[in-house]
Specification:
Layout (H helix, E strand, L loop, with lengths): L1 H25 L12 H12 L11 H8 L3 H10 L5
């Protein structure tokens, strides 16, 4: 009997949580962590990545770019692969 009451309470809590998240999205709020890179930084990182030296090789490695913005290489890869190209 106590197990059934506990399960019912858990279901109510889950339902309330889903309702609150839906209401927050309707108000324009999104969940999750804020991006470490602003769109302007992503654009600059993309320009750095596309820049070539005299031999035709990339001038900056992903690690160089990550060090410049004080983020991980994974953050740079995610930003370059997911952000839309501007201009």
């Amino acid at each position: 009997m106590l197990g059934a009451v506990g399960e019912f309470e858990r279901d109510l809590l889950s339902e309330r949580t889903r309702d609150e998240l839906r209401a927050a999205r309707a108000r324009g709020r999104t969940g999750g962590r804020k991006s470490k890179l602003k769109p302007a930084h992503v654009q600059l990182a993309r320009q750095m990545r596309d820049e070539l030296d005299d031999d035709g090789r990339r001038r900056h490695t992903v690690q160089d770019i990550a060090d410049e913005f004080d983020v991980s290489r994974g953050t740079i890869y995610r930003a370059l692969n997911s952000a839309p190209r501007l201009g």
